[in-house]
Amino acid sequence: MTNKYQSGKEQFEKPRDPVVDHPDYYNANGIEVLDVIAAFNLGFNTGNALKYVCRAGHKPGADSIIDLRKAAFYLNREIEELEKKRGERKNE
Length: 92
Description:
Blueprint: E1 2-7, E2 10-15, H1 18-21, E3 27-28, E4 31-32, H2 33-39, H3 44-55, H4 64-86
Antiparallel strand pairs: 1-2, 3-4
């Protein structure tokens, strides 16, 4: 399996590694988390939140609670950034 990468004007093929490119814990029923993130045009924070929610309980050796805490971290970070853009303060 290969991926085509483009560097400047040159295109070259690089061997694919399914463990790196498409790990099982980011795929379910033929749907890959990266495709959902791209389809919904999610940014860094919301994309990471979704990634951690989807992998919780599926990545071997990973703690589901830690993955969900990471998701919450990225959601809170996104909320804070949106509030700053609006000029709002965090209500705590």
